[in-house]
């Protein structure tokens, strides 16, 4: 059952749940904020599911995925990728039936409001990485129109109780139907839950950061208000407390001494994309360097080498590890690589150590010069389907991937040389054959034959001279 969770077929069945089907979607938020992150295909899937849910009206009508595939003109694999993107940004929740085989339940969620979206640090950071600073500012300007200056005015609007009469007894003790409605609304809340996107603090000591800034000009209240953003940046870049304090000081308004959160995002993003900054991505002091491990790899036993890679994956932030590997090659972290890593981190599918193993494999083991976004997404999708949750799980999947590649390569070679065809035997042309007189081999053989003939003639001549000498000696003896 676990393996079937992410394997869709055209005949896979699903039902739709949407407790907000009677509401209209805010297409301005979807196109300006969600579209750059999830892409056109995922957005079309979301809007199609929403349209179908309006017709179903929570009546548990059974559908088949073939309907979605034919309307979107995509295959099962691409449909699954679209669905996972919607799940990643909390626009869709997927359940699998434990009683009916190959059946799913899709629960649609209302998008965040523009304010909620931009206040959610991980979403706003992801959007910034996708579109860049200039476009990001343009999007914010489109969604939040400035209030024009109308001069000196006084608010004379009537309040609610100025216009309507509400018994004070009802306000003190709410009627039962009002309380029941409040409970119903609370239980059926259908807006996107942004709390799941907030990264968890692991080793970052926020109190230590406050202690470092305590004697500085920075207003600590503004720092505490930016705690979610600070933790998001730590999860992504692995910035320690001292370095984070330095970034905060640079992002603080010197007139008010308050931290400007948007400035902090921009400064960190810009600082990590400049190739001429040398030590901007230092990991904590107790972490190991990917460069050092690469230098020692040849002298280490395989199990020790593997364990060191796993230790690095567990003690570094993704972009910090990426920077270390690039420094070893005298390269630079490109904006495309940053976006690919940021996208994967923001989805919240894998812990940091798994993402690091993927980065290490693609750059250090597979010898790619840059992170290939498509290959990275393909491997990540495969790991998600196999529920990879630790660095050790990632190693196991990589070993299986290498075995499959080797098996496929061997199969191709066998098919190429003996697959259904007779073995091809090369026939040399006449001029290339060894026994032809014009070839180097034949010349050598001819020379050897000539030498043998000369040797035999010389021996015969020598024998003749010896015979003649013996004959003369015998003749002298007879004459005497």
* Poorly predicted residue ranges: 1-5, 276-289, 291-301, 424-436
Mean pLDDT reading: 76
List SSEs in N-to-C order: EHEHHEEHHHHHHHHHEEHHHHHHHHH
Biggest sheet record: 4 strands, mixed
Strand segment count: 6
InterPro entries: DnaB/C_C, WHD_DnaB
Region (Disordered): 277-300, 404-465
Domain Replicative helicase loading/DNA remodeling protein DnaB N-terminal winged helix: 11-261
Protein name: Replication initiation and membrane attachment protein, DnaB/DnaD family
Features:
DnaB/C_C; WHD_DnaB; four-stranded mixed β-sheet; Replication initiation and membrane attachment protein, DnaB/DnaD family; 21 helices; 480 residues; two-stranded antiparallel sheet
Can you characterise this structure?
- With 480 residues, the chain is mainly alpha-helical.
- The termini are far apart.
- Among the domains are: 113 residues, no CATH class; 66 residues; 127 residues, no CATH class.
- Strands 2-1-4-3 form a four-stranded mixed β-sheet. The chain has a two-stranded antiparallel ribbon with strand order 5-6.
- Strand 5 and strand 6 form a beta hairpin.
Concise overview:
Helices cover 60% and strands 5% of the residues. The chain is mainly alpha-helical and 480 residues long.
Record the SSE blueprint.
Elements: E1 13-17, H1 27-56, E2 63-64, H2 65-72, H3 76-88, E3 92-96, E4 103-108, H4 114-119, H5 121-143, H6 160-163, H7 168-172, H8 176-187, H9 206-213, H10 220-225, H11 227-237, H12 241-250, E5 252-253, E6 258-259, H13 261-271, H14 290-296, H15 302-315, H16 318-328, H17 335-347, H18 352-365, H19 373-385, H20 391-418, H21 440-479
Parallel strand pairs: 1-4
Antiparallel strand pairs: 1-2, 3-4, 5-6
Helix pairs in contact: 1-3, 1-5, 5-17, 9-12, 15-18, 16-18, 17-19, 18-20
């Amino acid at each position: 059952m676990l393996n079937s969770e992410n394997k869709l077929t055209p005949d896979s069945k699903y039902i739709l749940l949407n407790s907000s089907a009677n509401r209209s979607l805010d297409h301005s938020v979807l196109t300006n904020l969600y579209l750059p992150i999830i892409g056109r295909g995922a957005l079309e899937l979301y809007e199609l599911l929403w349209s179908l849910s309006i017709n179903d009206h929570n009546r548990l009508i059974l559908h088949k995925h073939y309907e979605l595939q034919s309307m979107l003109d995509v295959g099962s694999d691409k449909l699954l990728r679209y669905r996972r993107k919607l799940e990643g940004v909390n626009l869709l929740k997927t359940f699998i039936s434990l009683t009916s085989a190959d059946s799913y339940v899709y629960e649609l969620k209302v998008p965040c409001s523009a304010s909620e979206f931009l206040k959610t640090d991980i979403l706003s950071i992801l959007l910034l990485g996708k579109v860049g600073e200039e476009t990001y500012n343009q999007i914010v300007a489109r969604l939040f129109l400035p209030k024009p200056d109308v001069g000196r005015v006084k608010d004379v609007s009537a309040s609610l109780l100025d216009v309507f009469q509400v018994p004070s007894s009802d306000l003190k003790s709410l009627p039962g139907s009002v309380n029941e409605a409040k409970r119903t609304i609370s239980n059926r809340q259908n807006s996107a839950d942004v709390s799941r996107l907030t990264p968890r603090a692991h080793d970052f000591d926020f109190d230590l950061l406050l202690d470092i800034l305590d004697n500085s000009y920075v207003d600590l209240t503004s720092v505490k208000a930016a705690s979610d953003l600070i933790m998001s940046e730590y999860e992504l870049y692995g910035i320690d407390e001292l370095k984070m304090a330095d970034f905060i000081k640079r992002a603080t308004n010197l007139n008010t001494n308050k931290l400007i959160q948007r400035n902090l995002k921009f400064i960190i993003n810009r600082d990590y994309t400049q190739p001429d900054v040398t030590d901007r991505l230092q990991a904590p002091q107790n972490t190991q360097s990917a460069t050092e491990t690469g230098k020692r790899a040849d002298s280490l036993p395989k199990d020790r080498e593997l364990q060191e890679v796993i230790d690095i994956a567990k003690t570094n932030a993704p972009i910090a590890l990426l920077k270390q590997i690039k420094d070893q090659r005298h390269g630079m972290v490109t904006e495309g690589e940053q976006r690919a890593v940021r996208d994967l981190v923001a989805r919240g599918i894998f812990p940091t150590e798994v993402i690091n193993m993927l980065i290490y494999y693609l750059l250090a083991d597979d010898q790619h010069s840059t992170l290939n976004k498509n290959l990275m997404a393909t491997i990540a999708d495969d790991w998600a389907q196999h529920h990879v949750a630790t660095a050790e799980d990632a190693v196991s999947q990589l070993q299986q991937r290498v075995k499959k590649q080797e098996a496929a390569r061997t199969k191709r070679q066998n098919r190429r040389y003996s697959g259904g065809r007779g073995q091809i035997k090369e026939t040399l042309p006449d001029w290339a054959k060894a026994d032809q007189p014009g070839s180097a081999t034949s010349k050598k053989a001819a020379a050897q034959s000539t030498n043998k003939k000369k040797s035999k003639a010389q021996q015969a001549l020598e024998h003749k001279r010896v015979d003649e000498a013996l004959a003369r000696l015998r003749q002298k003896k007879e004459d005497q």
